[in-house]
Task: inverse folding
């Protein structure tokens, strides 16, 4: 029996092509270091951050409201903070969590290709 090289199926290729087109037309918001349990939201949707959360993918171009509330170990929620941001097609916005001030700051390091952490990025609602 001869070994056959792996050939991706047409469906898999189509999925990858669609994903690439979506990534080119939408934006990424990368958030490094946001503590687990922090309340985080965009526009009308919010949730508590889990251990693998690193931001959002598939953010449509346009103005969006990004907001968050730090949560203490006892479960006390801090007042909500946030900002408006105008995303453009294919943009990658990187923010770092400032543990002292409990807020997001512009990141000093770029991430490179956000697809490398895609499994840790939540879909835009």
Result:
């Amino acid at each position: 029996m001869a070994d056959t090289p792996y050939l991706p199926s047409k469906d898999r290729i189509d999925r990858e092509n669609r994903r690439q087109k979506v990534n080119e037309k939408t934006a990424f918001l990368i958030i490094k270091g946001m503590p687990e349990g922090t309340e985080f939201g965009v526009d009308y949707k919010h949730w508590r951050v889990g251990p693998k959360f690193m931001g959002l993918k598939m953010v449509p171009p346009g103005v969006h409201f990004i907001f968050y509330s730090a949560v203490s170990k006892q479960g006390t929620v801090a007042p909500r903070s946030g900002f408006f941001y105008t995303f453009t097609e294919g943009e990658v916005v990187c923010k770092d969590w400032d543990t002292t001030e409990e807020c997001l700051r512009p990141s000093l390091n770029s991430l490179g290709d956000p697809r490398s952490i895609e499994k840790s990025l939540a879909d835009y609602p």
The longest helix spans residues 10-25.
